[in-house]
Amino acid sequence: MAHSATKRSDITLSNCGYSKVLDIISSKWAALVIYAMENGKIRYGQMLRRVEGISKKMLTQTVRKLERDGLVQRHITPTVPVSVEYSLTALGESLLQPMKTLRQWGRDNYTQVVEARVKYDFVGTPDSVPTSPITSS
Predict the structure, then answer these.
(1) Which site among 47, 79, 105, 136 is 20 to 30 Å from 11 CA-CA?
(2) Which DSSP string corresponds to 32-52?
(3) Taking the CB of residue 45, how many other CB atoms lie within 10 A of it?
(4) Which domain holds residue 79?
(5) pLDDT tens track for 1-52
(6) Is 74 among the domain residues?
(7) Beta strands in the chain (DSSP E)
(8) What SS3 class is residue 87?
(9) Would 89 be classed as within a structural domain?
(10) CATH number at residue 69
(11) Sign of the four-CA dihedral 119, 124, 125, 131
(12) Distance between CA atoms of residues 113 and 50, nearest Å
């Protein structure tokens, strides 16, 4: 009797570099907040105005998460009132180019994605497409 080796998954969430990166930038706001800092230091209020639709609470949570991940740093200037600016760290800046590439892919291809979705929704799921009928003679 042949011995069957146990097949091990070679793609896992715990070891996948893609999923780890997506965990960092895939929140609704993270990429937009990173883009808000791509030109250097920016004040909180400026970011709030630049990122359309983000609430103060969500901006604060997003900046804190990115700071925790080592992508953003906070600069405090002891003025009255205290001035706080945010910028990308070297690690955060190293993420800009891959994100810009992904953004360009979206600009170049998203229309095709929308067309595919419309076609899929119109035709239905692959499971709902009838198979070729068996005809009797």
Answers:
(1) 105
(2) HHHHHTTTS-EEHHHHHHHST
(3) 11
(4) 17-124
(5) 555 556 777 777 777 777 888 888 888 899 999 999 999 999 999 999 999 9
(6) yes
(7) 42-43, 72-77, 83-88
(8) strand
(9) yes
(10) 1.10.10.10
(11) negative
(12) 27
Cα separation, 13 vs 39, in Å, equals 33
Q: Within a domain: residue 33? A: yes
What is the number of structural domains in the chain? 1
Cis peptide before 81 (omega within 30 of 0): yes
What lies within 8 Å, CB to CB, of 56 at 6+ separation is 48
**42 occurs within a structural domain:** yes
Rounded distance, CA 35 to CA 29, Å? 10
| Confidence band for 125, pLDDT divided at 50, 70 and 90 | low
Gyration radius from the chain CA atoms: 23
Residue 71: CA count within 13 A, CB half-sphere: 22
Q: The tokens of 48 are what?
A: 């709030």
